[in-house]
Amino acid sequence: MLDGNDLKSVRKNAGISQTDMAKKLDCDRRTIINYEQGVCEPKASQLFRWLSACKVDLKPLASQLQHFKESIFVLFALPFISPEIVSAGYVGVVALCVLYGLFRQSVNITQIAMMFCVIYTFEYLITALITSELKSLEASKYLVANSHFTFQICTSILAVFAFKNRVSISIYILESTKVTETFFDNMATWIYVYHTFIAVLLAIEYTIDYKYNIKHLSFIYEHFEKFAHAAMILAIWLLIAMIICHEKELKNGNSQC
Question: What's the whole-model pTM score?
Answer without folding.
Answer: 0.64
